Amino acid sequence: MTHHQLFIAGAFVDGTGSGTYEVHSPATGELVGTVPVPSTADLAEAVRAANEAQAKWARLTVWERAAVCHRIADELQERIEELAYLTVMEQGKPLSEALVDMEETALLFRLQADDATRVYGETMPSLSANKRMFTTYRPVGTWGIITPWNFPLHSVVEFVAPGLAMGNALVVKPPANTPLSVLKAMEAFVAAGLPDGLVSVLPGDGTIGEALVRHPGIDAIGFIGSSTTGERIQAAAGLKRSIMECSGNGPLIVLADADLDAAAKAAVYGAHFLAGQVCCATERVIVHRDVHDGFVAAVLRAAEVVVLGDPFDPAVNLGPLNNEGVAAKMDRHVADARARGAKVLTGGGRRAGMPTDLYYEFTVIDDVPVDSLVSREESFGPVVPIITGVDDDDLLRIANDDELGLQGAVFTKDMGTAFRFFEEMAVGQVIVNDSTCYWDANMPFGGAGGRRTGWGRMGSKHTLHAMADVRTAVFGF
To answer: From residue 133, how far is each of 102, 129, 138, 465 by CA, in Å?
Structure first.
């Protein structure tokens, strides 16, 4: 067990708060580390330092800022194994997944640094003959960042990399139960020569999160997490700029002409990757009735590759759930589905005899009613709920009858049908013939209008633009 400090204004400190948070491994139950509970005075110091540092950082050229981001990437790359180990200990995901997370975390700094050097303004004609107009991008200022526990470091860097590249400062609040990899990563920031104050990390609960959102020195908010929490944050933030990435209930649609084996493998992957604790997990599979039986058989075959166990075991690809709240939700959803007449074909409960009570069996449920909890809510666990539709229109209707349209997928061999579902699915991204969990570090990712999934985009130039203001100049002569 190791005591970890807060990171404020370029230094590791215990802060002025009282008490500590304990970080326990979901895989073993052991106490992994402790972190101080930050005080409002600690927050005030972090915001003060951020505002002071940001004013100087914004005056540098984008090339100078990009060079620092590349050095951070280099330092993170050297620490990948250590950061991945900490991620497994605090989060519970398999080591193979954690290593990929860390590789992509370093890559995000490189991509955003390079993209920032190509963020161009524009010139436009004026209605006045003696005026010339052009635009440029300027940093917003100091961002307050609140991130989830499923990708402890990666989610932070999704904001920090574009934020720094565009000239912002950031005060980060990761969850109290998964702060270790984020705090450890700050050693890479220091080694890379990032100016003091530009990034501070104060792990904590909703109390420090609300204080961060409401602080007058915070200019904008970046959030990844549940829709319910996102609504509370936005209510507290008022008119502050925000990027909100919220809950998803990803539908995977299997049409009558689909490659059933490919669709089944994608459904199983989308449900067991990170134990289903992903906002774009395969939360619902909506299958055309003509291929229902063949698809179910294919899913059960594909599920044979899922191995639940010790996340450090190379043969394991399904680790424990992160916390009791998620496990209890899975219990409720499975029980509700059974009560409504659904059939649990495999799994359906916690595995006994494991080091903790958080190891949940990979679960496949057939004949799921559309009004069941496992269909209507984000389960955030390793479950494939199968819903049957009578035709393409019915499948599309079921997919869109949901308030959590974030990312969806459709399996079909017909290009015209694929384009129809791309146009008509009420989600932010449509993946054709791959998992709802498909991810590319360079793709823009976010929610859909009219849904409780947030706004703004994570990834590529879209995040850079969102973390900057368009400033217009009008010159007369």
So the answer is: 43, 11, 16, 20
What's at 440, amino acid-wise? D
CA distances from 242 to 203, 220, 239, 451, 453 (A): 20, 6, 9, 16, 13
Q: Pinpoint the alpha helices (H) of 167-238.
A: 180-191, 206-214, 227-237
pTM of the complete model: 0.97
Q: Give the max Cα distance, the chain.
A: 80
Ramachandran angles phi, psi of 395, nearest 5°: -60, -40
Burial class (CB in 10 A: 0-12, 13-18, 19+), 432: middle
Give per-residue pLDDT as tens, 339-367: 999 999 999 999 999 999 999 999 999 99
Whole-angstrom distance, CA of residue 452 vs CA of residue 403: 6
* Of 26, 462, 448, residue with least CA distance to 247: 448
Helix 180-191, helix 154-165: angle, nearest 10: 30
Distance (Å, rounded) from C-alpha 280 to C-alpha 378?
Answer: 10
Q: Please confirm, yes or no, whether 245 is among the known catalytic residues.
A: yes
Over residues 276-288, the mean pLDDT reads 98
Q: The tokens of 353 are what?
A: 């005899």
Write down the catalytic residue from 45, 90, 97, 245.
245
Strand, coil or helix: what is 306? coil
CA distance 470 to 452: 27
* Selection from 466, 462, 450, 446 nearest residue 248 by Cα: 446
CA torsion sign for 191, 192, 194, 197 is negative
In Å, what is the CA distance from 407 to each residue of 213, 441, 454? 27, 15, 12
Mean pLDDT taken over the chain? 97
Instruction: Please report, for residues 110, 223, 283, 397, 428, the alpha-carbon distance to residue 446 in angstroms, rounded to integers and kept in the order given.
Output: 21, 12, 17, 21, 6
Catalytic residue among 279, 280, 361, 377: 279
